[in-house]
Amino acid sequence: MNRRTGLAEQMREWMRERRRPFAPRQVCDGLDILNELDRDKVRLAIHDFLKRGEIDSLGNSKFRYNHAWRGQRTGKEGRLRAKILKAMYVSISQFSSSDLQRLSEVPNRDYINRIIRELAIMRYIEKIGQRSAPGGIGTEKVYNIINRDQFRIEVMD
Questions:
Q1: What is 91-142 written as a DSSP string?
Q2: Residue 97 burial (C-beta neighbours within 10 Å; 0-12, 13-18, 19+)
Q3: Which end of the chain has the smaller Cβ count within 10 Å, N or C?
Q4: Residue 130 pairs with which residues in a beta bridge?
Q5: Rounded to an integer, what distance in angstroms lies between the CA atom of residue 52 and that of residue 55?
Q6: Can you tell me the distance from the alpha carbon of 126 to that of 134, in angstroms, rounded to the nearest whole number?
Q7: Rg over CA atoms, the chain
Q8: pTM of the predicted model over 0.70
């Protein structure tokens, strides 16, 4: 069972406040972590931070927090999201989740619908109607980008 302890968030907060390079030992000392098992967890978490690009390695077991990092998605999910966003942008007048699935070649429409909900809540896209779904069974929602320039700058970059 994977229990969340909040360690990563505590580490993130501590590392953000540092302006100088730090070592894993300093993170442990700064967070008052004395137990050796917990210190191992910190070392493993630092490896995860490094893999995500949230911290930079300076060599000699020294690291620096990357303040430019803002939760960028990497890996497969990041590539799929970029494809979906580009498919939205090139669909000039309107799009539906099935259009985005066809253009982005994403196998599962659930992920597309999650991105659509997220962007609708943030008011980057709006529902403009509905049309017959592909295959003629039911209907599907049709969306439009509210401000294409703002979408390009704030969402796609």
A1: --S-B-HHHHHHHHT-S-HHHHHHHHHHHHHTTSEEEEEEEEPTTSSSEEEE
A2: buried
A3: N
A4: 141
A5: 8
A6: 21
A7: 21
A8: no
Per-residue pLDDT of the chain (157 residues; tens, 9 = 90+): 345 568 888 998 999 888 889 999 999 999 999 999 989 999 999 988 888 788 888 988 899 988 777 655 555 566 788 889 999 999 888 999 999 999 988 888 898 999 999 999 989 999 999 999 888 889 999 999 999 998 988 888 6
* Tokens (6 digits) for 103: 């253009």
Q: Copy the structure tokens of residue 24.
A: 């894993």
List of domains in the chain: 7-65 (1.10.10), 75-156 (1.10.10.10)
Beta bridge partners of 126: 144
All residues at 6 or more sequence positions from 31 whose CB lies less than 8 Å from its CB, including other chains: 10, 11, 14, 42
